[in-house]
Amino acid sequence: MGSLLALAAPTAVRAETRGFVISTFSTATFSHPTNCKSGGNGASIDIQRRQLQRLGYSSSEIAYILQEGKDHKGRKQRELNLMRGPGGKVVDPFNDPGAAVDPGIKLMAGRYAPGFNLDGNLATGFEDPYSGAKGIDNQLLRVVGCFQAYDVTWPVRPFYEEVMWDTMTDTMPAWVVSVSGPNLRKDGPVTVTFDRALQHVRRNASGGALHDATYMLERGSRSHSVFKGTVRNGILTIAPGKLKLEGEAPIFTTLRLYRTQVSLRFKPDGSMEGFIGGYQPWLDFFYMASSAGEGNIGLDIPGLFHSFKRLADYGPHPKTGQNMLISSAYSVVAVPAFLATIDKKLVATTGGIRRTTPPLVSNVPGAVKPKAEMSEEDKAK
Questions:
Q1: For residue range 183-221, what is the model confidence (pLDDT) as tens digits?
Q2: Tally of CB atoms within 10 A around 364
Q3: Scanning 16, 45, 200, 203, which has the fewest C-beta atoms within 10 Å of its C-beta?
Q4: pTM of the full predicted structure?
Q5: Is the Cβ–Cβ distance between 157 and 24 less than 8 Å?
Q6: Alpha-carbon torsion angle 118, 120, 124, 127, nearest 10
């Protein structure tokens, strides 16, 4: 609370503080023909087929099971779906995924992925398709990128995450951001603060986040993180640190990022668009996926568990040495908002930080463009 009052103190009033509310948040993805050259993991129906194949069913038997919901001996499909242990042993893949056989899901092996160089090594990782930066660490996308739901490019979002975020918008306390500096119309150092509000995101007539709405900050919130930042050429970045934002089940119950970085562009309408990334507990993402179920999110749950465990790249457990964190990145849009304390002290004003920053567009050869970026000729193909 002290930091919030400090923002309202006379010394802070002389500076500028602009507020924003996060309107969309989803796993950062990028679709490209080289991502899954040997074929992807498909959708929910493909996961079911592969499980039945592992049990020894023929193609005709699988077709019968998928249509009738049981095999010729009367065993129901939901029972067959639990036979994921060694030798077909019954294992609940949601409660005990480690006991299930690793199905060996196909991993994203392409060259490009959005995100950040978290470990400082330029020789490893991906290339950012928007900035061209090398050494991008995004093992989360390497795990999920060959599933149909995640083989998309911004502004298209993974279907389940988009639906659940839209649903939670009317109930979850909003995530808000403030940017403070001596003159936000010029490049220079800033202070960036993330908080949680008491109100959920206010919608406009089109269902999107309302610009210039007012949000009161949650007193004593555990979702309070302050970073030193910089604005350069209309792009906001921060010095790495820890970010925690409390959400609600079943999606992003808690967002915890270590060595957090951001790259947010100020748009002409005053909003911000870009990416937030860092190392996060892979069990947090796994909980979201497993609570959704394979049918909803279209992921192979044991495959996800084993791949996360194998590809996690930070935070070794002190006893086992198992890495408990995985590099990741998220796409973010935030719109201008007034921010105030519960005792009605204004912390941040609206108006945005309008810049003529170039739009976030990829020029990677062969990239799979979302329809919003396609020409009419491309859409017709």
A1: 998 999 999 999 999 999 999 999 999 999 999 999 888
A2: 19
A3: 45
A4: 0.90
A5: yes
A6: 70
Q: Which residue has the tokens 């242990």?
A: 85
CA distance 118 to 262: 11
Distance CA 323, CA 326 (A): 8
How far is the C-alpha of 55 from the C-alpha of 80, rounded, in Å?
Answer: 8
Query: Residue 153, by phi and psi: left (phi above 0), alpha (psi -120 to 50) or beta?
Result: beta
Q: Given the structure tokens 């957090």, which residue do they identify?
A: 260
Residue with tokens 């403070």: 180
Helix or strand holding residue 274 (H, E): strand 272-281
Q: Which residue has the tokens 């999107």?
A: 208
Q: Convert the pLDDT of each residue in 100-116 to its tens digit.
A: 999 999 999 999 999 99
Q: Which residues contact 40 (CB under 8 A, 6 or more apart)?
A: 106, 146, 147, 148, 151
Q: State the pLDDT confidence band at 370, using cuts at 50, 70 and 90.
A: low
Say how many residues make up the chain.
381
